[in-house]
Amino acid sequence: MLGFGQDSLIPLSLNPYLKDxxxxxxxxxxxxxxxxxxxxxxxxxxxxxxxxxWVDYHKNYLAAGVTSTLYYQILDPGTVLPTxxxxxxxxxxxxxxxxxxxxxxxxxxxxxxxxSGTDLxxxxxxxxxxxGEQIMxxxxxxxxxxxxxxxxxxxxxxxxxxxxxxxxxxxxxxxxDITSADQIWIDNYACHNYRMPxxxxxxxxxxxxxxxxxxxxYSFGGQGSYxxxxxxxxxxxxxxxxxxxxxxxxxxxxxxxxxxxxxxxLILEMYAPDPNVDTWFNVWDVSxxxxxxxxxxxHIEIDASVFLMNGFQFRFRNKASLAGNLDHWHIDFxxxxxxxxxxxxxxxxxxxxxxxxxxxxxxTAVPWDHYNNLSNPSDHMRLEYDMLVINNATTPSLTNAGxxxxxxxxxGLPVAxxxxxxxxxxxxxxxxxxxYVFPQNSSIDLEDYEVKMNIATSTTPNxxxxxxxxxxxxxxxxxxxxxxxxxAESGYGLLDENSELAYKFEAYEADTLTGVLMKFVxxxxxxxxxxxxxTIWDDNNGVPGNIIYQDDFFDxxxxxxxxxxxxxxxxxxxxxxxxxxxxxxxxxxxxxEDDNLYIGFDRNNNNQDRIFYNNGGSWNNGSFAGSLIIxxxxxxxxxxxxxxxxxxxxxxSIYPNPTSDILNIDGMPELGYVKIFDISGKEILHAFxxxxxCGHLINGFYIVSVFNSNGNLVHSDKIIKQ
Length: 722
Hints:
Number of strands: 55
Strand content: 35-45%
CATH superfamily of the largest domain: Galactose-binding domain-like
Largest sheet: 6 strands, antiparallel
Shape: globular
Distance between the termini: 68 Å
CATH class of the largest domain: Mainly Beta
């Protein structure tokens, strides 16, 4: 029996902007890690987040300026040289003499320790800076046990032999200097993005939530957990000799994310580097009951008696639920400057608010061959593109006309009035009063066009920062249709068993579907075991009509999470069949259970009129403005997935370790490769296979680094050749 309910939106448990950007290191050793030295910044320090000013920690071991030091675990205190790696040692817990005295049924143990030990320095290789302690260790590892029962010694002694609990090990630590003044932030917990805020004053913000730098909750599954979450920390700053120093920024609660609760907060802290102080101070905060979606200004004078010295730092942090991508704050226009004043709060700047995504009339992406077959492609291009431009100054801003560049070709952008009004301005631009048409070329299988849009070619007193006057995007033609920008801000779904969800597509031509790309996103509740029946409908006067294809109930599909940006799961039809669809068709599912399946929901592109649900016998339009991240894939000359599906990085396994001959790598990325470095950092082997002959290597320690087909490091580990 069908239930009656409605569609719903839910917050995400992961951050899609972060999840696929980081590689988790295995183990706790500092081996093969980097330590960074920061050069101090000078005033002014300004970031409106249109570009990424986070420190780039993805250093190559062999890059210019990178140095390294090899630290050993066990050292001779006299020579400070490492002990022989062939030797193993035990401490007194594994090398002593125990005597058990039993008298009238009561037993006591007396331990005596052999005096043949050697004082050695044992370093902790799990933390930097390296610290060690001097310990007496022994070359032998056994415990002798005898007993005296009611005054009579037992002539038989027991001996327990142990393996050494101290063996020689090493860790190579790499060092790099961070000197670029364009890199401001030294940690990456806060998320740089262009899509989470509402009407930001410039391109890009830093967003604070309840998930860490990998995109996972700080307390996965801990629904009631709460506490300190993200940090955004500046490099050290030289404020010595400065006067009238102020820090200002703007902030917004919620945006397209989740509203902070009253107990949540955004906090600003400052560090006093005086050795007698050496403390972070809370200098400003705001609670979560501030009005959502509005931009507020903070303007704080730096206390000269505490902070105006070399080595000053400041950081933003938030307190939030630690169970998911919740309790959002966004900050923009961070400006630390001297010679300022209490009333110096005006942002004299003109900026693009959101990036461009597409020149296509309806879609963000279409199959190349469908576009290439159009007799009049201009019918499917936008005549005008309304871009949101924000004038943050207090008076209208007159600027020179900007330019549009497509694949290096420049087009003027005539507009009626370049005197931008205060606040939001809708900038409808075109190319010569006609839509731009991308060239058609039947001899290729796919195409990318690089687009650059600039709104002003010069700075003025009311447009002081030129960097946020330009936005870029790539118009990609592959083998699927898409309405979305690839990133989910929420999850969408239905709440009743046997409910149906359908998403309308009007293709450029009738063709054959090979499958569907979907982005299911995780929430606190795991629904990856829930069943759904992938379904394709034809059109019936603007609503889903007859079923063209539906999974067999005994061979259904299941949600497979693909939360990261530009990551999807590719669902094929049963038995590998292909489904012929008319120009207008619908893609979706019938669900069996009454749980929300959480399909990704892009809140920046509104295709609400194309979303339909049925949980009571009739079709209704979706209740929320946005787009589902569902992309039908068509049969073309291209590979069906075109390498656009980014799968989860498989767990890599490198074995055996130690090795004497063959080294195996399980889970190696397709078209990936391996580099092996000796302990000095010198590359000694470069291989494209997952089975590597190591017999010719000299015995010792090596670093094995695995790279994907794009040259990105995905795994690094230390091995021993013996």
